[in-house]
Amino acid sequence: MSANNPNVQSAQAAQNKKSTFIALGTIGAVAASVLACCCLSTEEEEVIADCVDRNDYVSGSGYRIVDDDECDDSDSYGSYFWYYGGTRTGLRSYGGSSFKPKDVKIKTRSGKTLQKGGFGSRFSGSGG
Question: What confidence category does residue 124 fall into, taking pLDDT thresholds of 50, 70 and 90?
């Protein structure tokens, strides 16, 4: 049979359609699976914030932790600020950052929510 034979051309066209259908179907299934995993995930990353005294830093020990009421969520550069993701040892926090992380839930050690996180979330504020 030659390539000019209508039966051969028809068979090749059918094969091409079948390949396209399988590829598009596979891509659609993978996309749906990824979307389902993202939407159904109940776990969200959580970062703990400590209110610390900017003027009481000890090298190797970190900042002195103060009462949450000393801080606010306005990113002010006063004497006290939120220190994110630090490790607490006694009344000191070290190894964290003064930069507020995005797309994560931020809570204080006392349980106050500073930011609700998650994929696409931009909410920030204070709450109890």
Answer: very low
